[in-house]
Amino acid sequence: MKFRRSGRLIDMTNYFIQNPQRLIPLTYFADKYQSAKSSISEDMGIIKQTFEQRGIGTLITLPGAAGGVKFIPKTSKEEATSFIAELGDIVQNPERLLPGGYLYLTDILGNPTLVNHIGRLFASVFADRDIDVVMTVATKGIPLAYAVAQYLNVPVVIVRRDSKVTEGSTVSINYVSGSSKRIQTMLLAKRSLAQGSKVLIIDDFMKAGGTINGMISLLEEFDAKVAGIGVLLESEDTQERLVDEYVSLVKLTAVDVKEKHISVEAGNYSSFI
Amino acid sequence: MKFRRSGRLIDMTNYFIQNPQRLIPLTYFADKYQSAKSSISEDMGIIKQTFEQRGIGTLITLPGAAGGVKFIPKTSKEEATSFIAELGDIVQNPERLLPGGYLYLTDILGNPTLVNHIGRLFASVFADRDIDVVMTVATKGIPLAYAVAQYLNVPVVIVRRDSKVTEGSTVSINYVSGSSKRIQTMLLAKRSLAQGSKVLIIDDFMKAGGTINGMISLLEEFDAKVAGIGVLLESEDTQERLVDEYVSLVKLTAVDVKEKHISVEAGNYSSFI
């Protein structure tokens, strides 16, 4: 089926959006549309320009026989700032307050539009790092980890608190949770992570950082390295932070259970883009 | 910023792909591109035609003041059949066999490209049903549920096996697992599901159907209704199936631990599209 330019632009845009961070040979499109490579190159020039103008991302062209074109999703600083402000407003809603000063975030993490947008922000800030896999701990971080992984085109591995027969053999560690100082266990299926992997850790919430620190210890068992850490919400309410370098979207500055008031500010995200 | 047609087609395609099943007023695009509504209508005609030709989906236009345009993702029968065959090959790999005849599926569920494609297939088959929310049970079904929910533009609710303080008050039920006949518990945060919701249940694996049956019982506690059931992998190895109507992608017909052999065939998906 032969395509006019407009049809090619639409179909190629769809393909790039569905396949971020993947190297696509020019011949793939030339064969698909039965078009000359020179026409495909022109198409890509138009798409690249529009993607950059609209803050969608960019196309990178790698020359040579093993080359091709790759779509890198990006978020502009303006879009990130306005989305983070919107997230802050959502988090501040006093109806989130649970007994004990905990926050109900399940609705945010259950909204695929928000989750996807959060994923795009993290993928944007970590786009230039060398990442083999995204890791999170069950259960609440899972949707965020997938959203990031999809934009980075890498797999997800999930650390669990309990062992399941369908995971096969596992490696487990004990760690001390940063805020409650309790000893906890986490484990990871042996075959889910290759030795030496470069790992992006994503989680929904970080207080003292004990859970994330636990994941870092678990990575050492796999000779794997931390390539980055991203958390949706960090809490300021802590004496000693166990984790140094991380990217956060929103920072919880105060929770007043009696007055039913939650205070937030933007996390450190903007200093990374 | 004024846009030429090619730029509009690219940006609109991106917007539709990122916002499936959402009604977008024509004025949104007319304002965004400072273009006449007649030009936007022509653009949408070109996009609709390309989406349909390439099996991406379709655009539906609703007339009137409250009207607009909506992108409905669809998968062609050919694409679904070939993807399901590919999935079957992946599942059949004898290295998946775990002690006890269990299958390791974590790598499939950890691959965002596969998960996304599975999500698009389910969203395609359930596109015409009235669905308020996608439900699954922690942990392994979560990525699939999000992929489906994103294409349907509805939230996800996650049933858990254990209670967490950050979920607030919960409703719990006991149920009998279909194959092991053990009594198990599942629970759902009270505020995560509105009374009377129409729920699409998604899970990775169904044997006798005890877990899915448990979720159906839990729905009754919320006066909610089952709008559909989708499972990635069903197992034939069962006397009495507890669940009637469901859509499956792949069917496990035999697992021979001694000979290290896994047999699969296509699930019932193709009879629904």
TrEMBL record, chains A, B:
Q: Which residue ranges does the record assign to the Phosphoribosyltransferase domain?
A: 107-265
User: Which superkingdom is the protein from?
Assistant: Bacteria
Positions of the Bacterial purine repressor N-terminal domain: 4-73
The record's section on SUPFAM superfamilies has:
PRTase-like, Winged helix' DNA-binding domain
Q: Name one GO molecular function term.
A: DNA binding
Q: List GO BP terms, alphabetically.
A: negative regulation of DNA-templated transcription; negative regulation of purine nucleobase metabolic process
Which InterPro entries does this entry report, sorted A to Z?
A: PRTase-like (IPR029057), PRTase_dom (IPR000836), Pur/Pyrimidine_PRTase (IPR050118), PuR_N (IPR015265), PurR_Bsub (IPR010078), WH-like_DNA-bd_sf (IPR036388), WH_DNA-bd_sf (IPR036390)
| Keyword field contains Aminoacyl-tRNA synthetase | no
Pfam families for the chain:
Pribosyltran, PuR_N
Keywords per UniProt: DNA-binding, Transcription, Transcription regulation
Q: Which PANTHER family match?
A: HYPOXANTHINE/GUANINE PHOSPHORIBOSYLTRANSFERASE (PTHR43864), PUR OPERON REPRESSOR (PTHR43864:SF2)
Subunit-level organization: Homodimer.
Protein family (similarity comment): Belongs to the purine/pyrimidine phosphoribosyltransferase family. PurR subfamily.
This protein is called what?
A: Transcriptional regulator
State the organism named in the record: Priestia koreensis
